[in-house]
Design brief:
262 residues; Arc Repressor Mutant, subunit A; 4% strand; globular
């Protein structure tokens, strides 16, 4: 039997943070979650929080009910004949998808935080050269990753009110979106500034938008793509930097990205 998990009653932002922590600490395969064990540990955390008078939000209670429901479904016997006719989806799949999506956003947030810490630790002389774009383009405003995040959040909010397109068998990934952006800047718009909002709104699914957002973060980190803004409160634009060709001149960069997002 594995050793019981040692609870320190850490404060979590939400139930998904707690579940991810339980899974990572025990080195559990997120695609094959032992739902009975995780449910037991999750309920134990809630009980200890109650004993220590730690108030938990309604989201924790809802997730507890969801875990119990999933656990019940996994314990129910399945008819082999019916399974052959109409295979039943793993009841844990929706939870796995939510955890993976939450982990991607959490990783992106940590990346942004680290970038902000580095920027705050660097002192520079604010001369006009620092506000000029590369390749002789017109001067623009200073733009950061935080502005790109705001654009992404705005587009996500707007998509709640537009029709949802179901794409059967869609398997888009972050490396796919990096190649998608690369093709845009290597094609007819190679010397233009591309609207970040326009790129997000072209995507038909939420998954594609998230993969595109993470792809842009990777390209900005690699200094292949830069952010620009013509005027205050204007749209965030994307432009190709001098490092673009250097990043894609070797197959090793994409190979490393492909391996990192497997």
């Amino acid at each position: 039997m594995p050793f019981p998990l040692n609870f320190h009653l850490d404060q979590y932002d939400g139930p998904l943070d707690l579940l991810l922590d339980l899974i990572r600490k025990q080195q559990i395969n997120i695609y094959d979650i032992p739902i009975a064990r995780i449910t037991s540990q999750y309920l134990e955390y809630m009980q200890k929080a109650l004993e220590m008078d730690i108030e938990l939000s309604a989201e924790f209670v809802y997730m507890a009910a969801t875990l119990i429901q999933i656990k019940s479904k996994t314990l129910l016997p399945r008819d082999p004949a019916l399974q052959e006719i109409s295979p039943e989806e793993d009841p844990r799949q929706e939870l796995v998808d939510r955890l993976l999506e939450h982990e991607r956003f959490k990783s992106a947030a940590e990346m942004l935080h680290q970038k902000r810490v580095v920027e705050e630790a660097v002192w520079s002389n604010p001369q006009i050269e620092h506000f000029r774009a590369e390749d002789g383009m017109e001067p623009g405003l200073a733009v950061t990753i935080h502005d790109l995040v705001k654009t992404f959040q705005t587009v996500l909010e707007r998509t709640k009110n537009r029709p949802i397109y179901e794409v059967t068998g869609e398997d888009v990934s972050v490396p796919d979106m990096i190649r998608y952006v690369r093709n845009i800047f290597e094609g007819e718009r190679r010397d233009e500034v591309v609207s970040a909002r326009d790129l997000f709104e072209r995507q038909k699914t939420r998954r594609a938008m998230i993969c595109l957002f993470l792809a842009l973060l990777e390209l900005v980190k690699l200094q292949a793509v830069g952010l620009t803004q013509a005027d205050a409160f204007g749209e965030i634009g994307l432009r190709k930097l001098k490092g673009f060709d250097a990043v894609f001149s070797s197959d090793q960069t994409m190979a490393a990205i492909d391996e990192g997002y497997q």
